[in-house]
Specification:
Porin, 213 residues, mainly beta, 8% helix
């Protein structure tokens, strides 16, 4: 877990040393659309697996030039996956909720529109550290309905989920003085599952609102 403390220290140093930095409280909603495969079958092409979530935390933005700025932050983010096949001949379904500490590192290109407003484009990498989660399986083999729920196990062993997720984000939005509205798409690279029969990779739409302190 040394990486987590390094990230915390980096963000703290940026906020202290950067006198011109803008600090925002941020929050918003997510739609997870994981790329999920099991035994070669790509489930997001067969069933609705979009899972709602949220993000909440703070961002720290520092201008580099009139048009370019650097932004990082510290967020709590909920990602997830849902499989809904309850209308099948042999109905089943499931949900997985994954809670992460999210550290984005983005570069923003700003375009002034006058009247204290501007629009921007943003892109850059992010690092997520998983700290909690649960998975629920639903069955209806006999028509009575059954459900099982258990906590996520983080690690590199069979049946566990890898704790670290890394990827890139890109998007844009509008800045209205004290308020900012943005829409982003996160693309995760690592394989989160430790099973040779499963493949799980992050795909995430985010809509956020920020308020400048």
């Amino acid at each position: 877990m040394k990486l987590k403390y390094i990230l915390f220290a980096t963000i703290a140093m940026l906020s202290i040393q950067s006198y011109s930095q803008t600090i925002r409280l941020k929050g918003g909603v997510n739609l997870s659309d994981f790329m999920y495969k099991s035994e070669g079958v790509e489930y997001n092409s067969l069933f609705n697996i979009t899972q709602p979530g949220f993000q909440a935390g703070a961002s720290f933005e520092r201008p580099i030039s009139e048009l370019l700025s650097f932004e990082t932050g510290l967020m709590v983010i909920l990602k997830g996956i849902k499989i809904n096949a309850l209308d099948n001949v042999y109905p089943y379904g499931g949900k997985m909720n994954l809670f992460y500490i999210d550290v984005p590192i983005t570069f923003k290109t700003n375009f002034d529109m006058g009247a204290k407003s501007k629009w921007f484009l943003a892109a850059g990498p992010w690092v997520d550290i998983g700290f909690a989660g649960n998975v629920m399986a639903m069955y209806n083999w006999t028509g009575n309905g059954q459900a099982e729920k258990e906590k996520i196990k983080w690690g590199d062993n069979e049946g566990e989920i890898k704790r670290f997720d890394i990827g890139v984000t890109f998007g844009g939005g509008m800045d209205f003085g004290d308020w900012e509205v943005g829409a982003y798409y996160d693309l995760g690279f690592p394989e989160l599952s430790n099973s040779s029969e499963q493949s799980i990779k992050t795909r995430l739409w985010k809509l956020s609102v920020g308020y400048k302190l």
